[in-house]
């Protein structure tokens, strides 16, 4: 799969027919998705119709995503489809209109080839349902992550060059890190999704920084984000201290952070060891919201149709809501501490994952507790930045002996998406990674 940037350029120049491109992509999905389990729904006929209509658009030569095949996470309504949220309890009535995210993709010339698999109500960082398991293209024995696991699987397997995701407690960054991708969660002020007490945001997954920036620019309606600048000289804090538990992080994950820190120091940034004052309260606050947020969505569903793990999860969430334990002051106090930390630092560098990825298994058949334990252990570095509403992203950095990619996380202050993308692009040049399994490292 060529990059989205290259595909759009070729379509705009008349060198590539969007219909033929869509046919090729659909053929690839048909051949490979039975292994990686990326898609809940492949929109073969609808996608070809979209490509045919696109080919005759008079503004084709000016569209930023001209003809680019895009996968959309199965949480966003579009004309003729329903948003399934990975649940048998979700309504099956097709939408009569596009939500804003899909509307922006189509206006930019993208062809939506399918809806990607998610765990039920997007609760878990492992994606499986009765119809399939989203697997890591680098090693299919491992999960592609979650909850944007299907989107990550689709991009990492080369089925599409870019995919849409949402991130409530790491749901873009965790699967991106597992699958060797660039994944960005913008700040709460740029592109909110609205769920989970305002912690969730729409974002992008891609194999290159340029592609991630291009898709984010379209989703956010901010074309300037697609232009990657230079980061300048930044104050970079480096920390591998895990919030809340302070449990040891695997050596390979810490070594990747150290490697990136050395690269950034060599590029002229001021790099130092420094850890935010995480405290205990914000981590407990995001745990509470992790239970309570999905329980609000489940209020309108037939709970007898939910998976057993989900029923237990939302039952606890309702209890927390009833007890009044989801309090805005938790976020306010954490935000004040985060702001003090970033008075002295421009970017925070941490591991993306706190443990190695779980195996690809039928997690939907297991209990809530069996899902919750690996989920909490895995996501220690991610969720606090959803609570704060800060931009954060993951970038590939190294490889584990198992063959799995290792990603690092970059965090910055609100409005700093362009800064994160610039740093990531610098890392892409100085510490390059292979775009897809089996490909050589990019020069």
Structural descriptors:
443 residues, alpha/beta, Amidase signature (AS) enzymes, 2 domains, eleven-stranded mixed beta sheet
Write the layout of secondary structure elements.
Layout: H1 4-12, H2 18-36, E1 39-42, H3 44-55, E2 69-73, H4 100-107, E3 111-116, E4 128-129, E5 132-133, E6 135-136, E7 139-143, H5 149-156, E8 162-167, H6 173-178, E9 182-185, H7 195-198, E10 201-206, H8 209-220, E11 235-238, H9 251-266, E12 270-273, H10 281-298, H11 308-322, H12 328-341, E13 347-351, H13 368-378, H14 384-388, E14 392-399, E15 405-411, H15 417-430
Parallel strand pairs: 2-3, 2-8, 11-12, 11-13
Antiparallel strand pairs: 1-3, 4-5, 6-7, 8-10, 9-10, 9-14, 13-15, 14-15
Helix pairs in contact: 2-3, 4-8, 10-11
Family: Belongs to the amidase family.
Protein name: Amidase
Pfam families: Amidase
